[in-house]
Amino acid sequence: MESKTDQPRRKMTSYTIDPEIAAAITDQIEKHKDREIRKINDVIHQNPELAYKEQQAHDNFVAMLRWLGFAVTPHAYGLHTAFSAEAGSGGRLIVLNAEYDALPGIGHACGHNLIASAALAAYLGLAAALAKAGPGAGRVRLLGTPAEEGGGGKLKLIAAGAYTGAAASLMVHPGASYLLTPPVREVAFVRMLANVKYQVFFTGRPAHAAMAPWDGVNALDAVCLAYNAVSMLRQQMRPHERVHGVFRAAGERPNVTPAETCVEYYVRSDTRAAAEALWLRVQKCFEGAAVATGCGVRYERLNSYADVRPSRALCRAYVDAMPPGTVAFADPPDFLAGSTDMGDVTYECPGFHGAFGIDTEVGQSNHTPAFAAAAGTVESFRRAVGCGRGMALAAWRVLSDDAFAEEMRAEWEADIHAAKEG
Question: From the Swiss-Prot or TrEMBL record, what is one GO molecular function term (predicted)?
Fold first, then answer.
């Protein structure tokens, strides 16, 4: 069930889309669905590329968009595998995010080919609507966003100005449909956790483990002690908070006291401020382990993502744009767990990060080989394109309805202020 806090804070004005605009969006998507959009989808799915190495995805997108007559900037915003395409003029700006990086070893097990397909469909539909409406109606930018899987591509795009002046930014993400109750196929208001990521390095002193172990300072003891301390800390963490880590280096030979060890930890909570606060508690576990073992300790911060704070108004507009009964507003609330660099975008402008189900067996959710296979099916592609149409219709309301856009912005500003205040 939706909680009171998940409801829109303001009553939005009534709205009916111009039938000719709606037809322009739908017709354009249908025109390109089985050729251009499907080609991009299949190229990405069949040729998985890791973060910042998405050359085929980038090149095929750029070539396709140019062939369709759009102005495209390859290698955009200083990132070799990012691109930007724009249509329209004047008015407000919509940014659509196309992800396309894969996971090591299991390909598109997070379905980024479907994210790209939905974004392309939405872009083509909105571009047609803007052409129908005429000059000054607004602008739409299709942004190729590399390296979501740990690489923080959107963080670099934010720093380079890719979202500056945006009225809203939209994308959708696939999840496992068995978590949803038919006829519901999607969830609009999807919150995701903020994360803080660190590598932690302990430095001790080597020694012969049999001849003179007393001369050594054991850095492996430090990471083991820290690991157990973090495990105990979990008893006092809030239910939605997560801490998990792996050993990156733990010594080379049993008869040499390990002098250099490394662990990598992710710390997650419901807001960026809360995740930073939780990290300070986790850090004390590492500091204590260093003191107890006599080791030195240092930290290297990795890409860290803000929580996803969707615009309630934009989510409602998306629900209204889709077939009745097929999109839940916020149930289940944890349909997509984890973290994403889209969270940082939602701190820059009102954002939409909806989720749609694709068909897998129970237990075969994101980041599994079975999910990668499901992301390549015709049915999954069809659902992604349907989401693209919904995003285009919701985004058109942002472009065309001044009162809605103003209310959406005010609601977002209040929400972000509250999040930053903790």
Answer: dipeptidase activity
Which residue matches tokens 């058109």?
396
Q: Are 317 and 16 in contact, with CB atoms under 8 Å apart?
A: no
DSSP for 307-344, written as a single string:
PB---HHHHHHHHHHSPTTSEESSSSTTSS-S--THHH
pTM over cut 0.90: yes
Rounded distance between C-alpha atoms, residue 205 and residue 201, angstroms: 13
Query: Rounded CA gap, 247 and 269, in Å?
Result: 22
**Where does 194-301 sit in CATH, by number?**
3.30.70.360
Alpha-carbon Rg for the chain in angstroms: 23
> What confidence tens digit (pLDDT) does each residue in 361-394 have?
999 999 999 999 999 999 999 999 999 999 999 9
Q: Which residues of 82-109 are buried (b: 16+ CB within 10 A; e: fewer)?
A: bbbbbbbeebbbbbbbbbbbbbeebbbb
Q: What is the pLDDT of residues 40-91, one digit of tens each?
A: 999 999 999 999 999 999 999 999 999 999 999 999 999 999 999 999 999 9
Please state which of the four CATH numbers 3.40.1160.10, 3.40.50.620, 3.40.50.970, 3.40.630.10 is assigned to the domain occupying 4-192+308-421. 3.40.630.10
CATH 3.30.70.360 domain range(s) in the chain: 194-301
Local structure of residue 136 (DSSP, 8 states): T
